[in-house]
C-alpha cells in the first residue's frame, strides 16, 4: 500500500472519529466549505513559498512543507467527496505519454 492509499484509509476511519480528538474529524465536522477554504489557503501558501525559492534560491524546505499541507488537504477534500487517490492516479496514468500540447490542440478539432 502506498502512502496516499494509507492516508486515504486513515481519512476514511476519521469519518467516525471525535472532532475534539482528530484534526481530520474536525474538518469533516466543519464541512466541505471549510475544507475548500483550507485547500485555497494552502495553495496560496505553496505559491508564496515557490516564489521565495525563485527569488532567493532559498526556502526549499518551506516549499516542501507547504506542498505536503496542500496535498494533505486535497486528500481530505477527495475523501469528503468519496473519491479515492487511486482515481486521480488512474487519470494521470491515462495521460502518461500523451503530450499536453497535442491534447490541447485536439480539443479544438
Ligand atoms: N498529514 C497530516 C497533516 N498535514 C497537516 N496537518 C494539519 O493541518 C493543519 C494545517 O495547518 P494550519 O496552520 O493551516 O492549521 P490551523 O491554523 O489549525 O487551521 P485553522 O483552524 O486556522 O483553519 C495543522 O493542524 C496540521 O497539523 C495534518 N493533519 C493530519 N495529517 C495526517 O492525518 C492523520 C490523521 O490526523 P488526525 O485526524 O488529527 O488524527 C495523521 O495521522 C497524519 O497522517
Short description:
The chain is mainly alpha-helical and 109 residues long. It contains six helices and no strands. The relative contact order is 0.12.
Q: Which class best fits the helix and strand makeup?
A: mainly alpha
Q: What is the N-to-C order of secondary-structure elements (H for helix, E for strand)?
A: HHHHHH
Number of helices: 6
Shape designation: globular
CATH T-level fold name: Helix Hairpins
Strand content: under 5%
Distance linking N and C termini? 41 Å
Provide the residue-averaged pLDDT.
95
Number of E strands: 0
Which architecture would the CATH scheme give at its second level? Orthogonal Bundle
Pfam families: PRA-PH
Subcellular location: Cytoplasm
Protein name: Phosphoribosyl-ATP pyrophosphatase
Pathway: Amino-acid biosynthesis; L-histidine biosynthesis; L-histidine from 5-phospho-alpha-D-ribose 1-diphosphate: step 2/9
Provide a descriptive summary of the structure in words.
With 109 residues, the chain is an all-alpha fold. The chain has a single domain (3-107), classed as MazG-like (Helix Hairpins). It has six helices and no strands. It has helices at residues 3-13, 23-30, 32-56, 60-80, 85-95, 100-107. It starts with a helix and ends with a helix. The model has no long low-confidence stretch (mean pLDDT 95).
SSE blueprint and pairings:
Elements: H1 3-13, H2 23-30, H3 32-56, H4 60-80, H5 85-95, H6 100-107
Bound molecules: phosphoribosyl ATP (PRT).
Phosphoribosyl ATP is lined by residues 7, 10, 14, 22-25, 38, 69, 72.
Amino acid at each position: 500500500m502506498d502512502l496516499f492509499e494509507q492516508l486515504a484509509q486513515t481519512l476514511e476511519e476519521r469519518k467516525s472519529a471525535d472532532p475534539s480528538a482528530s484534526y481530520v474529524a474536525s474538518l469533516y465536522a466543519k464541512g466541505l466549505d471549510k475544507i475548500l477554504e483550507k485547500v485555497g489557503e494552502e495553495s496560496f501558501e505553496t505559491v508564496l513559498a515557490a516564489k521565495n525559492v525563485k527569488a532567493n534560491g532559498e526556502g526549499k524546505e518551506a516549499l516542501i512543507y507547504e506542498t505536503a499541507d496542500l496535498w494533505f488537504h486535497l486528500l481530505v477534500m477527495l475523501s469528503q467527496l468519496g473519491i479515492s487517490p487511486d482515481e486521480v492516479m488512474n487519470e494521470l496514468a491515462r495521460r502518461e505519454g500523451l503530450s499536453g500540447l497535442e491534447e490541447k490542440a485536439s480539443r479544438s478539432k
